[in-house]
Automatic annotation (TrEMBL), chain A:
GO terms for biological process: actin cytoskeleton organization; barbed-end actin filament capping. Belongs to the F-actin-capping protein alpha subunit family. The lineage of its organism: Eukaryota, Fungi, Dikarya, Ascomycota, Pezizomycotina. The keyword Transferase does not apply. This is F-actin-capping protein subunit alpha.
From TrEMBL, chain B:
Pfam families: F_actin_cap_B. This is F-actin-capping protein subunit beta. Belongs to the F-actin-capping protein beta subunit family. It is found in: Cytoplasm, Cytoskeleton. Keywords: Actin capping, Actin-binding, Cytoplasm, Cytoskeleton. It comes from Penicillium argentinense.
């Protein structure tokens, strides 16, 4: 039973973008003889939601807010500085994507002004580059630093693909210059007649000359642009390099083989002499 | 993925081989791999859906986990899930060959080079004399194909008898620079059935390619592109095929790149146009 929970938890945490409900249904079907296993998987759902920056709608609002380790208040309660609201989510049933028990929660931080400016700059950056995304800026580490989060999801299950872009940055707040450190993750799943997954992680460490919202977001925007360009080059490199290193498009003779005569070919003779034709 | 060259190779080689005299086969379709799924049909559907979703890089680990949760499914798992192929050296010929369910009998595997089982079996299942002759010829032919297209790697072809024809599997495995900054591994599994009909032979080919590509650098960070894809072709000779090597390239590189483009648009102008376009589509759908 305990190993079943361990394995089922790893499946929940390994669910591709937008496919958690499908994975849950499969796990339920495979474990049906053990009774309802799902409540025992609550810690895995919580880890999934916080790591994947799950978004939920605030009650009575169309606005989606992020769930993460950085804006956790306690228990199942999280905090959104932009709407100055705290809210609860049921980690297991968050699949319906609505938060509950919302309360007013004024932003209390010595960096409140910086956080508000960051939210404003980040909002402009997000609208320019991410067709559908959610973002947040939170005080962390005893109010000595801020976390900047952005998650963009695109789900197209009818066309058998889903994707997620996550960016997680941390900025220590000091009087002079600072460093933005963090990670960008891209996960793409394509599963028509197969199962193809792209998973990337890129660490960033950016020095920022002054602790202002404009300079921080500007450095982040540049880093994200550079990363996307590098990723696109990597696709080409892989297609041209590693992929072709595995299998040639044309045989080493640079001529297509006449397969009717394949029985007549002999290794090391016709081939090396290029006499295939 | 199989490509036009490969499909042509397979079909043409088969046609050539089978036009030799004395190759008549008998009737009635017989499937050599009995379906044991009926008892666990719901489980099996959930299993295949789950494996289609979880990261293909972790298939082996996930199979072990599922096996521990639902041990009854073990036989199904072995025969229905495509995993990277394992290599073994034939003690008789000192040549490498690939292991799969089709050359397995109990805990032993049959070498295509010697037709012997390792560990040795007294009464291991081997193809009939006629089909073994075809198997030997096919191994020679695909050895040429492998050298031409893969410049290395390991290949194996296994045939078995059907009541009205024969069936076989063509396996190819190749890896490049494992452990370095850029590495790749290709495994392809092509299963075919050739059955005799009144005036022609009917061929059914199922091709699976398992691909793992990893890339690492300071500018890029870590990038892993892994997957498996399956495609089926059925044909009465002569056959026409699409070029599925392009499909593999398109899916693995083109599709993943497109989706990243959907997530983040590099140009804000484009983004505005796209937003306007999406808005228009949405309003038309209302």
């Amino acid at each position: 039973m305990s190993s079943t929970i361990e394995f089922a938890s790893s499946f929940i945490e390994g669910a591709p973008p937008g496919e958690l409900a499908d994975v849950v249904a499969d796990v339920q079907a495979l474990t049906s003889e053990e009774g309802d296993l799902i409540p025992s998987l609550a810690p895995a759902f919580e880890r999934y939601n916080e790591a994947q920056l799950t978004t939920v709608k605030l009650p009575g609002s169309s606005q989606e807010v992020i769930v993460s380790e950085f804006n956790k208040v306690d228990g199942n309660r999280y905090f959104d500085p932009e709407s100055q609201t705290s809210f609860e989510i049921d980690h297991i049933t968050q699949l319906d994507q609505t938060a509950s028990a919302a309360q007013s929660a004024p932003l209390e931080s010595q960096n409140a002004e910086l956080i508000k400016s960051l939210l404003k700059s980040l909002g402009i950056h997000a609208r320019e580059h991410y067709p559908s995304c959610s973002y947040g800026v939170y005080p962390i580490e005893n109010d000595s630093a801020v976390a900047i989060l952005l998650v963009a999801n695109r789900y197209s299950p009818n066309n058998f693909w889903n994707g997620r872009f996550r960016a997680i940055y941390q900025v220590p707040v000091s009087s002079s210059s600072t460093n933005v450190t963090g990670k960008i993750h891209v996960d793409v799943h394509y599963y028509e007649d197969g199962n193809v997954a792209l998973n990337t992680t890129k660490s960033v460490d950016l020095s920022v000359p002054s602790v202002s919202a404009e300079s921080i977001i500007s450095r982040i925007a540049t880093a994200e642009r550079d990363y996307q360009e590098e990723l696109n080059r990597a696709f080409v490199r892989m297609a041209e390099g590693a992929f072709k290193g595995l299998r040639r498009q044309l045989p080493i003779t640079r001529q297509k083989v006449e397969w009717e005569k394949v029985g007549g070919y002999r290794l090391g003779q016709d081939i090396s002499g290029g006499k295939g034709r | 993925m199989a490509d036009q060259q490969f499909d042509s190779a397979l079909f043409a080689a088969l046609a050539g081989l089978r036009s030799q005299p004395g190759q008549r086969q008998c009737e009635a379709l017989h499937n050599p791999t009995p379906c044991a799924w009926r008892d666990h049909r719901a489980d099996h559907l959930a299993l295949s859906d789950l494996l289609r979703r979880l990261n293909p890089r972790d298939t082996k680990k996930n199979l072990n986990a599922i096996n521990s949760i639902v041990p009854e499914l073990q036989e199904d798992l072995l025969s229905s899930v495509d995993q990277p192929l394992e290599v073994r050296r034939c003690p008789q010929t000192n040549r490498d060959y690939l292991l799969c369910d089709y050359n397995r009998d109990g805990d032993s595997y049959r070498s295509p080079w010697s037709n012997e089982f390792d560990p040795p079996l007294e009464d291991g299942t081997v193809p009939s004399e006629k089909v073994r002759k075809l198997e030997v010829a096919a191994n020679e032919a695909f050895d040429v194909y492998r050298e031409l297209y893969y410049e290395g790697g390991v290949g194996s072809v296994y045939f078995w008898d059907l009541d009205d024809g024969f069936a076989g599997v063509v396996l190819l495995k190749k890896g490049v620079t494992p452990g370095s900054q850029s590495s790749g591994e290709w495994d392809s599994i092509h299963v075919f059935e050739a059955t005799d009909r009144a005036r022609s032979s009917h061929y059914k080919l199922t091709s699976t390619v398992i691909l793992h590509l990893a890339n690492q650098s300071d500018a890029l960070g870590d990038m892993d592109l892994s997957g498996n894809m399956t495609r089926q072709v059925e044909a009465d000779l002569p056959v026409e095929q699409g070029d599925a090597s392009h499909i593999a390239n398109e899916v693995y590189f083109g599709k993943a790149k497109d989706v990243v483009g959907e997530l983040r648009t590099p140009l804000s102008e484009t983004n505005r146009d796209r937003a306007a376009q999406l808005e228009m589509i949405k309003s038309m759908q209302k």
